[in-house]
Specification:
The protein is mainly beta. It is built from no helices and twelve strands.
Length: 115
């Protein structure tokens, strides 16, 4: 949870980015508490945290949308379909190995995040 002024915003966390985080990309939490995009074999069935909300540069504060929030930075989704995180950081309709559910599409551009 992060705060805006004194008001908490559920479904989002703030963490330091390890590497650049593009808006809308799946994000994992690292052992040191930083977050990074999925790729290079870093995805496990336990470390998916959510979707980057906005871009963040390496070493800066990043906002990650977590469980039950709605990410609106997607394209080409089919409403009602479950999407899985692929090992290259993309989203797909079939589970990769490991199987990690990213969320469920509610429109072509919006995904209810599972985190």
């Amino acid at each position: 949870m992060r705060t805006i002024g004194n008001t908490p915003v559920d479904g989002e966390v703030r963490a330091v980015a390890s590497g650049a985080l593009p808006n809308g990309d799946p994000v994992v939490v690292n052992a040191d508490g930083t977050v990074s995009v999925v790729g290079g074999g870093n995805l496990t069935s336990e470390n998916y945290i959510g979707i980057a909300k906005g871009a963040a540069a390496d070493g800066t504060s990043a906002v990650v949308q977590t469980g039950c929030s709605i990410n609106d930075a997607q394209s080409g989704l089919t409403a009602g379909q479950a999407y899985y995180v692929q090992t290259d950081g993309t989203l797909g309709l079939t589970a990769a190995d490991p199987s990690v559910l990213a969320g469920t599409a509610v429109s072509a551009t919006k995904l209810i995040v599972k985190g």
